[in-house]
Amino acid sequence: MKKFVCVLVFALLLIRSDFGAAQTAVGYDFLNTFVGARPAAMGGAFVGIVGDVHNIAYNPAGLSHIGEKRGTFSYLNHLLDFNSGFLAYAQPFSGGTAAASLNFIDFGQFERRGEKNEDTGEFGSNGLAFSLSYARFLIKNFAVGGNVKYIRFQIDTYTASAIAMDAGLSYTIPGQDLSIGLAVQNFGSTTSAFIQTKDDLPLTVQLGASKTLAHLPVFVSGALVKTKDEDLDFRLGGEIRLREQLRLRLGYNSVGLDQKTDTSMDRLAGVSMGIGFVVRKFDIDYSFSSFGEVGSLNRFTLVSRF
User: Closest by alpha carbon to 77, among 269, 300, 271, 302?
Assistant: First the structure.
């Protein structure tokens, strides 16, 4: 426990830092988009949560708590009708838990204009990240996990790619239904550029915790998140179990403070909510995330237990 506290203190110092001055622009922004309806409904406060297949994208150490095979598929109709999907599979075995995932976004078709502003056809743009994950307990209640990722972004005939790693720690305090998580994401470098300049990856550090409240069917979580070239933000989330087969979720992301435009929609900026159903071996989840006047996102997720 003392060693874990030392790691957390170090992480707090790292979160407060500016990660150094960026030499180039930070790219691959689609990596910051939440995946999964349950995490999104809880404001993205997921780094301290364990035992969910979506831990792949938030804190891979949480995968060590999965006791059965799980697969998931999510669909997101993004702003401006961009389409995004997330596909993942996790399998536990005696030495830990292995997983793989694919995160994909399609920005659609755009008009190509010539030197004289004439219409010369259309071009597309898309991005993807493929991850391989592994997590295990080092000692009782203390788990580690990591991802290796291949990332590609394409605009017309131009392609940029990168290799990155994620690493996470998770500590569960016995008898208190409390879990603490720490994750470093997108640590790596661009291997090829669109033309010449290689964009930096959105290096991110997350620290958070989750807890089931005593004598109540309520689960809460919180997180501090620092992404390179972005302000420190906080995330809060809650999940209420109304019945064994029904859950309501609510969340808030402080990024909403930057989305206010002095309109009546300001009060919803950063707010998220959702609902989840358990049908036999399937979880069916939906989430709504508000960006204030800019718009909102709707996510649908199916999780299967094998």
Answer: 300
Query: pLDDT 10s per residue in the chain (306 long)?
Result: 555 555 555 555 554 554 554 456 788 888 999 999 999 999 999 999 999 999 999 999 999 999 999 999 999 987 777 889 999 999 999 999 999 999 999 988 888 777 777 677 788 889 999 999 999 999 999 999 999 999 999 988 889 999 999 999 999 998 899 999 999 999 999 999 887 778 899 999 999 999 999 889 999 999 999 998 889 999 999 999 998 899 999 999 998 877 777 777 778 889 999 999 999 999 999 999 998 887 889 999 999 998
Domain limits, the chain: 2-236
**CA distance readout (Å), 202 to 54, 140, 155, 188, 207:** 19, 32, 19, 9, 16
> What pairs with residue 50 in β-bridges?
none
Q: How far apart are CA 191 and CA 251, in angstroms?
A: 36
> Are 197 and 24 in contact, with CB atoms under 8 Å apart?
yes
CB 178 within 8 A of CB 210: yes
Q: Is the dihedral of CA 58, 61, 62, 68 positive or negative?
A: positive
Compute, in degrees rounded to 10, the torsion defined by CA atoms 11, 14, 16, 20.
Answer: -170
β-bridge partners, 227: 204
